[in-house]
Fold:
Amino acid sequence: MPGVVDEGVKFLQELDSFSGLRRRWLIKRESETSERYGKVPRLRNIDELLSFGIINLDKPPGPTSHEVVAWVKGLLGLRRAGHGGTLEPA
Structure:
């Protein structure tokens, strides 16, 4: 896949920029790979994003974490979804 390393580095640099970090990325070795083993998030189609993605959600007070997961599953037509950590407000 040509350009995968370049796309990956560009993605990491955008994450750094978004988070205010200033890191240099060093590529030790570039090699060919297959999409079977993953790909840069920006190159994923909508089905792949929904299958392997994460939703960063700021849950309002009131509904339980389980209710919010059920709503997300219904809205996105997903069979499986879950939450990690707490979704309770500060």
User: Anything to note?
Assistant: The CA atoms of residues 69 and 82 lie 6 Å apart. The chain has three helices and no strands. The mean pLDDT is 79. The helical segments are 4-19, 46-52, 65-76.
